[in-house]
Amino acid sequence: MTSRSPLTGIEVPIIGSDSIKWYNLSLPSTTTAPPPSSSQPLLSPVTDDTSACCLVGDPTTYFVWRINKNSPYVLEIVEFCSSREFPRVGLRIEFTSALCPFALICKNEFSGTSGYPYMLYTSTVAGVAYLIRLTNITNYGSYTVFPPHEVTELNIQSYCDYGAITAIAATAGCLVIGGSDGSVGCFRLGSLDSSSPGFFHELRDDSSLGRLWSLVSRRAVAPVSDLVFFEIQGRNLIFVLHLDGVLQVWDLLSCSKLLRYSMNASMSEGATFTRLWAGEMNKDTSILPLGVLHKPNSEVDGEMISVYSLHHSLGGRTNILLEPSTTNISMDEGALIDVKLSSNKIWILKVDGLVLHNLSGPSETGEYEQCFGLQESVVAEQLFQSSEHAADDLLWLAHSIYPSTKEQIASRVSSIFLRMLFLPDIFHNSVLRATLQDHNKHYTDSEFHSLTADGLKKEIISLIEHEGASRSPLSLLYCWRNFCSHYFDNWCHKNAPCGLLLDSSSGAIGLIRKSSISLLRRLEDIELLSFGSFDELGEIANHRINLSGDLEREILFDVLRCTSNLSQQLGKGAPALFYESVFSEPSLSPEDIVGRLLKVLETRYTSSVAALHVSELGIDTAWEKRVGDHKILRKFSTNMFLSLHGLYRKAATWDKVVDVISKYLNFLVPQKNENKSDSEALFDIRTGITVQVTSQVAKVMFESAVDILLLLNYMVKLGGQINMSPDDVSRVQLELFPLIQEIITEWHILHFFGTTQCESPAMEDFSSQLSLLQIDSTANRRSWNDKLGKCDFTLAFILLLDHQRSFESQNGVDSRHLPHPSSFITPVRNFTSWIVWGRSEDGPSTFSSRSTMLALILLKHGQFDAVEHILTVVNQNILKEKTSGSIQGVNNEWCTLLHLLGCCLLAQAHRHAPRGSSEKKVSEAISCFFRAASLDGASKTLQSLPYESGLPHLGISEHVSPTAWKLHYYQWAMQIFERYNMSAGACQFALAALEQVDEVLGLNDTYSGADFLNESPTIVKGRLWANVFKFTLDLSFYHDAYCAIISNPDEESKYICLRRFIIVLYERGAIKILCDGQLPFIGLAEKVEQELAWKAERSDVSVKPNPYKLLYAFEMHRHNWRKAASYMYLHSVQLKSETASKDYQVRSLVLQERLNCLSATINALHLVQPSSAWIDPVHQGKSILKELYPSKKARITVSEEEANDDFPSEKLESCMDIEKLENEFVLTSAEHLLSLANVNWTFTGIEKPPPNLVELLVQSNLYDMVFTVILKFYKGSALKRELERVFVAMSLKCCPTRENIKKQGLLLTSSKNEVAHNSLDIVPAAQQSKGNDQWDALEQYIEKYKSFHPRLPAIVAETLLCADRLIELPLWLVQMFKGTIKGTWGMAGSESSPALLFQLYVDYGRYPEATNLLLHYIESLTSLRPADVIRRKRTFAVWFPYTTIERLWCKLGELIKSGHMVDQCEKLRALLQTALQKHFQQVIL
């Protein structure tokens, strides 16, 4: 196609036509009898996607209908107007059977149908025609079924039998069908009732001759191929085309034939005619063009469209004459999709493109045929799908530009693909969803439509990263290429063209696709230079570029051919990488990018790329690629060298070439037009088209400027090799490079505005965003809220709608109709001029100042990312301008730019940036504000910013001195950072403001009233130091915060900060910093103590860390031992008041804490001199309360009565010494141990323990605590009495009752001769263990404490025997009795002597044990050595309890007389008698 003629136009998608929400409606239950069943359909079914556009009313309402071949039961309808935004809703009507490829929507011109302004005609393949009365589509949101009275059904077979219906057409109130037998039937459907006369009639010739001819030739009439309605002079005509080429024209009103013409007469025999199209009547010539599609014969593989001219007269009778065809257009069979005719043009849509043929003569460029590019080629090119290696070339080029960082390469490649996918003319809603589904990403309708542009980008990135898990650039590229390949395939499948849209009133031509609608436009001049043939565009070169002659035109064309060669050598990835470099972090300057691209032109690829080729492709393939690249490079270098030499020879000097390039660059500069329109902003279809076309033109302009920049750098690098002198090089560098850079920047920003989606408002700041966007009461502007963040709402719309629109009535543009293909240029130029230069009444301005104003608009609407990008780009240009030109003018613009950039970066960091990125943006914002404040004239420049721009107002008087203004500005910046909770930045500006305070001080140490409202320096410094304190405290810089406190000259502010410091440290658990000696308490030690004490008095006991403990540590560090002890004791008192209300688990913990407090108190007092080792806790607490802020009250206070009621029984004296504290410690320890044993007990006094304490402790087996209490509180006889009580209780716990013994089956014998009746093994192990523990405890403690009371063994033995006469005394207890005093014999001893044990045995009837014990001692006396005989003569050396022995003798006698245990008693008595006789004999001797 493009080989036959140059490209003269391209496609522009209508924004929003790809994302329609459908209202699905079905037809009501039919009352019409179904047609008879047949194996063959009555009408032809839908074999291809079919669509058409119906134009209704004035202003025109466009109805686009579609029938998808995959859903032949569904008819889709979209309604839109050019003066309104494209609707986001459409209508889907579901029929009961498949539809034929026909529908018509027209105006309802009949009475009695108010509320239904439109009529829809369609038919099913079964022969049932429908008339549906429609209202506006937006009214069908709540419907699921059409109301029955809105639908009329017509069964065609009930009225006629023409065989197969081969053609169908309709107009308002009439439906016409054509049959396979050549008959034509007319139904007055919609204008008459089906039962009315004349509802159906057949179009036939009623004249006598005509009837005769019909009878003779009826069988020869060919089937009807097509039917077309057309209105001439207010009369509806029906054009009937038969398959054999016979064309008949009928007057619908009179049913008379006006014309019969055989086209086959001028064609070869056997030609078949299938389609008929009618154009627009030329009012001047009264000629109507007709297009006929026919196939010459069956042997020819191809079709032809012949254009005929139909003449009609304007007399009383309409005379029609059809001239033979003079225009024939050949095409491949099956390639035709749709055809539209106007009065002098024919548009032909084929599968391979769209062609326009001029019927009246050649076009302005002398062409009869003009080609328009379709979107498929644009999508393929932008997504690097136009060739097999396009994506690979992008990766290799990225490797050459970013040779050192693999991550940066992957990031840049991903960013390029992602940006391309979301370009307005590439992005397609349903296509992207289908592509995500191909990669197993499924969404519901609500989920997908709720995703913003950022949300969709995140989904795509996560998908790519998941598939490219290795994260190598090549694997990532394959993932992107695979994704884009699926996207392109889905785009071509789901968005294929299926019809044309033609508005004859304006000449607008559009393209109806399966899921979108677009318009066709003419190319701009620069696009013609880029897409067209240079040799045929002399008019542009001569007039727009102002070339002086053919030589300059030839020079320019040679230059453009060189740029084309450079572009082809680098590939499509070079402009994308150049564009993307501006977004990279860190950004690369244009000079760096150009230098690296030139390196690629010299060496093809870098060594890193070569290494990558080897690792990814293999050695052999990499070597072949290297050889091929080397050949390509040599060929390119040679051609470029020869071309540049030829250019030099043609121009004679390089100055001539530079002059021509300079003129061409001026042609690339955005034109400045007079733009004074203040019309209301409208978001309509035309506005969207303007934005789309602007972005398309900006892309071409940007790439053209980049190509020229590369060519000039290439020429400069060659230098002397192409005869360029140093002067020529200097001129290029000084004159052309700055101009090119400015052009690139301007078109880059224009393209950025047109293609970058708006940010969605932050959720936390939605209310403020809402109020900002509702600038006035117009519905258009209120509707912005739901568009922000959507994929089809770019930044350019905000700029247009915030200020004005580019379409103006004085430009001759009719807003009631879609625009003509040539009418796009003026609005785009106006919009471009307004963006770059502003309105004419705004006065002269530079692009940097204009960019600042545009940034204000975007900043007002929360587009922070866009503002940062724009201002960053402009800032780079301003930095270059500082080397030349007016420094003051640059400073003014730079100051505003830096101020706005700082505000933008700050807002970005606050809203959604990650932590690392947020810190970087805060740092950059701080830098911007400091730099803005340091520039000359900053005060006047910044205060002139409009308040309604959305920026926080500075609020600084215009009459302050420069230094005072800087102080105010720093305070303003501090407040802004504080508002966003960014304490680091706020602290820096607070410190900077403090530095300015001293400079602003006057001779009298006061500020001028105009500057500071008569504030004293102390107040200002105090406020600033207080802010420094707050910010450093927020940052947890505690030492810096304390330094801010001690630096504060305002005493009141200082103490407030100190209190806050302590509270915050306490809340954050960092209060220990006050107690570790790191902070120098310069005159603030007492204040710190008071604050801590105030905090302690009003804090709950459960808080951690406890303030009393902090006070203890604080005082201990200062060596105030008594104060430390007092605070710790107050804490113990506080804990005691909380103990009663706690359960036993928590109570135990509280008691343990009390013990720790008392222990710490005692330890602290031990550090004091003994005479001063006391505290007065009651007086200490009262003094604290009196000293601390007497005007303030605690939130939780206890009245004096309640305080006295809490401790009425304590009766604590005012002073507490170490002894009293130790008493309380012992009692608290007992309470703690009892609480662990789940015994609820407390005490009220500390002089002596309560009577039941010892008993409770013994019951709980807390013997250590028992003896501690006894030894602490009892002395002398009281001590012995308490010991006896304890050991009696312990002994009883060792001795089980007889009932328990019997239950256990255990009989305790009184002697070794008695035998147990049951085994000991049956005793439960747990109980046996518990008994053993009791015996062990008894042994342990009697051994330990018998020195305090020698009779304890006797008391224990007597208690055991009293409890159980048969109990066997433990061996260790018996040994305590036998251990006599050294130097004595017999049974004499201490209070627990063998004689006492002997007496206990006798008293409790343990006669065998008594006898054995006596015999043991008698025998031991008998066995004395001779050396001991002398010593036994001493007084009481030998002593036996003879009285008790006598009692034993008598008791044994009594038992013998009573007959009880006679044998045993006699045996014992005999042994006793024998032993006594021997003893007495020995004593006598």
Please give a structural write-up.
With 1485 residues, the protein is α+β, with helices and mostly antiparallel strands. Among the domains are: 845-953, no CATH class; 955-966 and 978-1068, no CATH class; 1098-1239 and 1259-1269, no CATH class; 1274-1370, no CATH class; 1379-1485. The protein has 51 helices and 33 strands. It has an eight-stranded mixed β-sheet with strand order 23-24-25-26-1-29-28-27. Strands 2-6-5-4-3 form a five-stranded mixed β-sheet, with no helix packed on it. A four-stranded antiparallel β-sheet has the order 7-8-9-10, with no helix packed on it. A hairpin with a 2-residue loop joins strand 4 (61-68) and strand 5 (71-80). It is elongated. The termini are far apart.
What is the element layout, followed by pairings?
Elements: E1 7-13, E2 21-26, E3 50-56, E4 61-68, E5 71-80, E6 89-94, E7 99-107, E8 118-124, E9 128-134, E10 151-155, E11 165-171, E12 174-179, E13 184-187, E14 200-202, H1 208-217, E15 224-232, E16 235-242, E17 246-251, E18 256-262, E19 272-278, E20 287-295, E21 303-312, E22 320-331, E23 336-341, E24 345-350, E25 353-358, E26 369-373, H2 375-382, H3 390-401, H4 406-421, H5 429-438, H6 445-450, H7 453-467, H8 473-494, E27 497-503, E28 508-513, E29 517-522, H9 525-531, H10 538-544, H11 550-570, H12 573-581, H13 590-603, H14 607-617, H15 619-651, H16 654-668, H17 685-718, H18 726-755, H19 766-773, H20 779-782, H21 795-803, H22 825-837, H23 847-860, H24 864-881, H25 887-911, H26 915-934, H27 938-943, H28 962-979, H29 983-1000, H30 1009-1012, H31 1017-1034, H32 1038-1047, H33 1051-1068, H34 1085-1097, H35 1107-1117, H36 1121-1139, H37 1144-1166, E30 1174-1175, H38 1177-1187, H39 1200-1206, E31 1216-1217, H40 1218-1236, H41 1252-1259, H42 1263-1273, H43 1276-1294, H44 1298-1304, H45 1325-1345, H46 1352-1363, H47 1371-1378, E32 1385-1386, H48 1394-1403, ...
Helix pairs in contact: 3-4, 4-8, 4-12, 5-8, 11-15, 11-16, 11-17, 13-17, 14-15, 16-18, 17-18, 17-22, 18-24, 23-24, 23-25, 24-25, 25-26, 26-28, 28-29, 29-31, 31-32, 31-33, 32-33, 33-34, 34-35, 35-36, 36-37, 36-38, 37-40, 40-42, 41-42, 41-43, 42-43, 43-45, 43-46, 46-48, 48-49, 49-51, 50-51
